[in-house]
Please model this.
Amino acid sequence: MSINQLYNIMKNILSILAIFFTASLLQAQDAVELTVQPPGPFIAFTESSHDFGDIEQGDVVQYIFEFENKGDAPVILADVRTTCGCTASEWVREPIAPGASSKIKVTFNSRGKIGRQNKVVTIMSNAANNPERVSIVTNVLPKPPADQ
Model:
């Protein structure tokens, strides 16, 4: 085999590798384009769940869920629903501009509860990903008996 033949073979191999490399870059670009959010408001929570761990029966715990409007129009929260009367929520009633952040405070009262608790909070809004859900989780331990 001559040097010219080896050179042509190497040139062909490099051309084929360049084609495969270009094709893989185009596929990666297509994958990125598929993750683009739809137009309009879009809620993106920093965390979708919070675990308080073990608490004692009767404890009242709170957690603040933070979110950002990653859309291109204001988010308006219409309602924030909890699963029972033991859980309450507070949220802003004003529109949240694109790129702005806001918070939803969730309070759980463990009075009368025992064992593993999973409370879901449903956020109703005008966002493209409506409804959104976050949850709080805890394990309620019995209150220790009072010393007599």
In short: The mean pLDDT is 87.
